[in-house]
Amino acid sequence: MLRYDLHCHSTHSDGLLTPRELVRRSAQRGVDVLALTDHDELSGIAEAKDESGHVRIRLVPGVELSVSWRHVTLHVLGLRVDPDCAALCSGLATIRAGRSARARRMGDALAAVGIEGAYEGALRLVTSERLISRTHFARFLVEAGHARSTKDVFQRYLAPGKPGHVEHAWASLPDAIAWIRAAGGQAVLAHPGRYPVSPAEMQELLTEFHATGGAGIEVQSPSHSAAQVREFAHQARAFGLAASSGSDYHGPGESSVDLGDMPPLPAGLIPIWRDW
Ligand code: AMP
Ligand code: MN
Ligand code: MN
Ligand code: MN
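Above: inputs. Below: predicted complex with manganese (II) ion.
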């Protein structure tokens, strides 16, 4: 049985390790197949691919797209994408372009509750000039003593409804899935248990995701409780969607689950890698 980890982040988005370091660490930890899935970004793939040639690991080019669906932000993983696909690259460039203006508005929103210099502080912590995320704000707020941990920051300042959260329109779900498919990839709904939707809305989301060409859902994720793993395993079977598994690793000290450490998928599911 091969060990798969199909979700992680490098310094090309909001992770703490370089693509090369991620591949090395995964290989040392016994991962056989690793997908690098930076937020809205493919620029780390070349380095990861290069490093995968020096260790016993198969690198799957991936990406995690930010999507707006109704009132919620969704994350859609693209797995086995062609990183040179023009449609995907230009779609991702559009998503990234909105991030700078959003970050400035976040800085203004935080200043309004007495936290000065958050935009500049977050900017100092970005590791790719192409991408700023809430994670960078979270790290700055911890560093500046406004909260004890990044988890704490999200709860108090950055989650929807909190003072530093600003509304933002990401890609549409049909566009995101179309770009992934144009790049020859499989679209996987990331950590579905995290979305603040009613059970009825979840049914509608999965129906729409499936009808629009979505291939699978991420059943095994550190974002999921044991009950949610069972629930989304059930949904995958019910919708005829494949199942994926990923640690969503962001770096040492920041992630509860390390690379490759997800439990196996529940029985009776079609693994997203079945035909790889
Ligand atoms: P963004 O794409 O800029 O909205 O940032 C989203 C990122 O913030 C996610 O990919 C996570 O890395 C991080 N994040 C979101 N919610 C939390 C949370 N509750 N605790 C810690 N990190 C979080
Ligand atoms: Mn992240
Ligand atoms: Mn995510
Ligand atoms: Mn992620």
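The mean pLDDT is 98.
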